[in-house]
Design a protein that fits this description.
Elements lengths: L11 E3 L9 H10 L4 E3 L8 H14 L2 E2 L13 H5 L2
Parallel strand pairs: 1-2, 2-3
Length: 86
C-alpha cells in the first residue's frame, strides 16, 4: 500500500468531499499548502469562462493537476426539465 502521508502529491481531493463549500481557486490554494497533487472539481463550479481561466492560472501557479472533471449525470425527476439542469 502507498504511504500517502509521506507522499501527499499522490492525493487528489474531489471537491464534493468538502461539499463544494469553496471555490476551485481556494481549494487549489489550500491543497498546495499541504502538497496535495491534484483536485477533482465539478463542472457546475465553473459558471463562466472567467472562472475557468482563473482556475487554470491558479493551477499553473501551484503545479497542481486536475485528476478529473465531474458532472452530475443523475436525474432526480422524470422528463426533460431534469435533463436541462445538467
Amino acid at each position: 500500500m502507498r504511504d500517502l502521508i509521506s507522499s501527499p502529491q499522490l492525493i487528489s481531493i474531489n471537491s464534493a468531499t468538502i461539499n463544494h463549500c469553496v471555490k476551485p481557486s481556494c481549494l487549489i490554494e489550500e491543497c498546495s499548502k499541504f502538497h496535495i497533487g491534484a483536485i477533482g472539481p465539478w463542472v457546475h463550479e465553473f459558471p463562466d469562462e472567467k472562472s475557468i481561466r482563473d482556475t487554470v492560472k491558479a493551477l499553473n501557479n501551484t503545479g497542481l493537476k486536475i485528476s478529473c472533471l465531474s458532472r452530475s449525470g443523475y436525474m432526480s425527476a422524470e422528463g426533460n426539465e431534469s435533463k436541462k439542469k445538467i
